[in-house]
Amino acid sequence: MFTDDQVAHLLRTVYDDKRTRESGLADLLSLTAAIGLRLGEAGLVRWKDLDLDAEVPTLSVGGKLVRVKEAKPGLQSEDFVKSGMSTWTIPLPVDTADMLRARFRSLAERKLRGNATDAEKTFVFPSSTRSIPAPDNVNKRVGRVFDAAELPTATNHTLRRTVENRLNRSTLSGWAIHRPSRTLRTGTVVRCPPEGSMVSKAIRLRTLSRL
Predict the structure, then answer these.
(1) CA-based angle 197:201:203, to the nearest 5?
(2) CATH superfamily of 4-208
(3) In this predicted structure, what is the pLDDT of residue 49?
(4) Within the chain, what is the greatest distance between any pair of CA atoms?
(5) φ, ψ for residue 19, nearest 5 deg
(6) 89, 181, 197, 203: which sits with the fewest CB atoms below 10 Å from its CB?
(7) What ranges do the domains of the chain cover?
(8) C-alpha separations of 172 from 52, 190, 203 in Å
């Protein structure tokens, strides 16, 4: 597991790098560091999976990529319900919700200019070429980030375990810990990271890096 200082250092590393910041990889990692999603889950979050106007903003994990023969593009998003799986909903920390709102505002500006791609209109974190995200490419890019942060043996799984450990240590009560499995899942929620935590503070680097 990571210490709070290591998580903050990791996020500072990605937000200090212009390429990872502008590609959205920094925001994607801040999301996984906040709520412990798998990379494949975080990379495939769609705008329709978010409710950022609710009193408690939420993210629903409910889609996957499927390969469609003789279709362009070959990979397309499909709701879990079509494959017999269930969605689960996660309440978002304040800073994470703010980051996602900022991404939505940027998308709205590109739509007004007429240069938003279909993938950008669908996915919160499209690929660096503004197309449908490819999980294998995301894994490779994240691996390079861990190397740059001098954490070569770490993976996103390390982040997930860190989130679980932080929730276990949290004084918050009444929430279930997010433990995705390969079985059907319904109604799963997670606790948000405490306000003022190192993860919460590090996410604010997104705003500072743009000043």
Answers:
(1) 120
(2) Intergrase catalytic core (1.10.443.10)
(3) 92
(4) 52
(5) -65, -45
(6) 181
(7) 4-208
(8) 22, 11, 20
